[in-house]
Specification:
Helices cover about 10% and strands about 40% of the residues. It has helices at about 50-55, 245-260, 275-280, 300-305, 325-330; strands spanning about 5, 10-15, 60-70, 75-85, 90-95, 110-115, 120-130, 135-140, 150, 160-165, 175-185, 195-205, 215, 225-230, 240-245, 265, 270-275, 290-295, 310-315, 320, 340-345, 350-355, 355-360. Strands 3-4-5-8-7-6 form a six-stranded antiparallel beta barrel. A six-stranded antiparallel β-barrel has the order 10-11-12-15-14-13. Strands 17, 18, 19, 20, 21 and 22 form a six-stranded antiparallel sheet that branches. β10 and β11 (about 175-185) form a beta hairpin.
Amino acid sequence: MGTNSEKTSSTQVAVNQAPTTTQAPPITTASTAGKPNVVPTGQGVVSPAQHVAEVLVPSVVNVKVTSEYQLGPFQQEAQGEGSGVIYTSDGMIVTNNHVVRGPDGEVAKDIVVTLATGKALPARVIGTDPLTDLAVVKVDAGFDLPAATFVTEPPKVGEYAVAIGSPLGYEGSVTLGIVSGLDRSVEGAYGTEGIALNNLIQTDAPISPGNSGGALANASGQVIGINVAYEPPTTGAVSIGFAIPSAVVVKVADEIISTGKATHAYMGVVTVTVTPKLQEEFKLSRSSGILVYRVSPNSPAAKAGIQEGDIIIKIDDKEMLDASDLLVAVRDRKPGERVKVLIDRGGKEMELTVTLEERPSEE
């Protein structure tokens, strides 16, 4: 097992490790002709999901929300549900931002968390972060809850991945797959206030409505991510789901618990990926990089001298090949940090220094 380090209120964070393989005992078959082969109880093939279920199902909860919203002159009520993962033994639970919000984007008026034991508890929102689609809610159980262990090292493509949650209301459901890819991006069409999500884990472990906010775990039962989205079959996709990496979850959840909100650095530009087609259409000087087509007034980028039409080539030493690369590079920084930005302006390269600021709530 990897080394577990205690965090405040018994949240478990572990370094990644190779999963333990469970060997099935040898199977004895009947030798007498005409008799069936019978496997003694407990001597079948053991699925990696079985161990994960035993370890992690007690730490995954169902989250039901009731929201009020205005539809014309009428006040309407809507119900929704998702999943959550117990983050600390004193009742902090991490879930998705979109799980705890209603159709109008407002935080739900009533939230009820149902533990794996079946006990239902009222919950209150501690804080939300639309940028990462994470939220923390709190329940007062009156006793210690079984907090999950989170792995902050990224998983490896091909390793087992087990999704646990409440798909379509079926609480404590467990599905098995693998990590299909890393650093994936999805458009902001999953209740994330239109904000694209980046740096996601892709998995083929079946994820359905209601899984949002639940756990994606490795074969040791450690949480590698929080399930957030899936590509529905209507798109032609088969088993394509996404999870927010635990490194992001731990960072955001700790900050929300400490301050009530998560802070993010921002540069203040809107960009698009440069392609050969875009280069030809707009007569650009490069066929790769990211094109700045809007600079927010008085933003860090504007103060540093970045202009519309500039092509960003690098942030510090990281090459910018896709618009999502910039989002990831900036989100990994803190407000106040300085970054060197290599740009191409009309065929001439120049380096500018940008001092990042805290992302305004309206950005």
